[in-house]
Amino acid sequence: MNLGNLVLIALLFTILLYPVAGQRVSYEITITLSENQAHEAVKITLNNTGTFPFEDFSYLLPADATGIKVYDSAGSLSPDIATGDAIVITSNFRSPLQPGTEETLTIEFDTFELVSIVEGEHIFSALFSPPGGSSQLGLRISLPRGMGLPNPISSGARTDIAPLPDQTISDGTTTTFVWNVDPADELAVFIRYSPLIQSSTTLPAAVTTTFTPVPQKEDSKIYWLFVPLFIALFLIGYYRFRRGGDGLENKTEFMKDDERIIIDLVRENAGIVQKRLGDHTGFSKAKVSKIISELERRKIVRVERVGRRNKLFLSEEFKKR
Fold first, then answer.
1. CB 221: neighbour CB atoms within 10 A?
2. Does residue 205 surpass a pLDDT of 60?
3. Which of 67, 66, 48 lies closest to 57, judged by CA?
4. Residue 193: what pLDDT?
5. In this structure, which of 75, 116, 179, 181 has its CB flanked by the most CB atoms within 10 Å?
6. How far are the Cα atoms of 28, 187, 296 from residue 141, in angstroms, in the given order?
7. DSSP characters over 189-219
């Protein structure tokens, strides 16, 4: 899968740093999103299938990770923490992990690297890369209370979540998406979410609300006949503004097809991570890099480097052309 820098390799940031022969590893990752950051809890089950005991383990975390906690079934562990471009934590097992036995460890931390805000919409992007030979990867991502996808998954509108989750759970106030990858493989996730617009407080699940019409005066009935027309005109205008009202088709008319494809993706997914473009287009990593470099040189695309990721936006100069 050609997706990367999508970030934090939320597992690149939460997995065993080096794959080791004689071990079987599975991961259960739970991410709880708030307004502008993510709380990540990674449960790692390590089975020693080799002939020698394991003394310690190491993990890679994002450079801005805070509130780091490491613990096993018996309680907290005290890892050594090395900082730099990333944070590496190393800790001994409470007792050596003997052949034929397994241990479950949990790492928790907070990070701002997974979430960005673009034009009032929140964007979560991450690449989960468990080491080769990992047996299973389970991922649960919960949106902030009162937030959801701008467009329902079944609407056929722009992509607000990719890949599609295996399961969607909602209690009426919080939405959780679930993915299960077995055997574990690289998983890139993109979610665009925003506050849900409601006329009153969020209703619990399975509650039906009935509205009783208020009698109107005769002249007001005529007014209400025009309301659907006003709404339809507004929606048409809004749709054209979002989809083509910026004149992008004219701006890209004489560009190469490959460039237009990339520009369309960046327009529809402001803040998309560069490596994820390969997944959408099938272009090689080298080809995507070459196109982005050219578009950046011509001041069409703006590249914002966040940690290990390149986030892409249309430049303000290009929008004004």
1. 10
2. no
3. 48
4. 92
5. 116
6. 11, 13, 33
7. EEEEEEEPP-SSSPPPTT-----PPPP--HH
β partners of residue 137: 27, 181
Burial class from Cβ neighbours inside 10 Å (0-12, 13-18, 19+) for residue 63 reads: middle
Map out the domains of the chain with their CATH numbers: 23-195 (2.60.40.1730), 252-320 (1.10.10.10)
In the chain, pLDDT over 90 holds for what percent of residues?
29
- Is 307 a residue whose pLDDT tops 70? yes
pTM score, whole prediction: 0.58
Q: Phi and psi at residue 100, in whole multiples of 5°?
A: 80, 5
Going by C-beta distance under 8 Å and a sequence separation of 6 or more, which residues neighbour residue 24? Answer: 46, 47, 49, 133, 134, 135
Can you name the residues that pair with 142 across neighbouring β-strands? 32, 176
Give percent of the chain with pLDDT exceeding 70. 73
Give the C-alpha separation, 277 to 265, whole Å: 8
Provide CB contacts within 8 A for 97, sequence distance 6+: 46, 48, 53, 54, 103
Which residues have C-beta within 8 Å of that of residue 55, sequence separation ≥ 6? 92, 93, 96
Higher pLDDT, 220 or 132: 132
Those residues whose C-beta lies under 8 Å from the C-beta of residue 317, and which sit 6 or more positions away, are 299
Predicted pLDDT of residue 319:
80
Q: What pLDDT is attached to residue 254?
A: 55
Rounded to whole angstroms, the Cα distance separating 103 from 97 reads: 7
Distances (CA, A) of 15 to 41, 207, 234, 257: 11, 41, 48, 39
Q: How far is CA 66 from CA 40, 76, 91, in A?
A: 11, 16, 17
- Say if residues 203 and 173 touch (Cβ distance below 8 Å): no
Helix axes 257-268, 285-297, angle to 10 degrees: 80
Calpha distance 20→68 (Å, rounded) = 24
Q: Of 1, 108, 102, whose CA–CA distance to 59 is shortest?
A: 108
What is d(CA 288, CA 64) in angstroms, rounded to the nearest whole number?
28
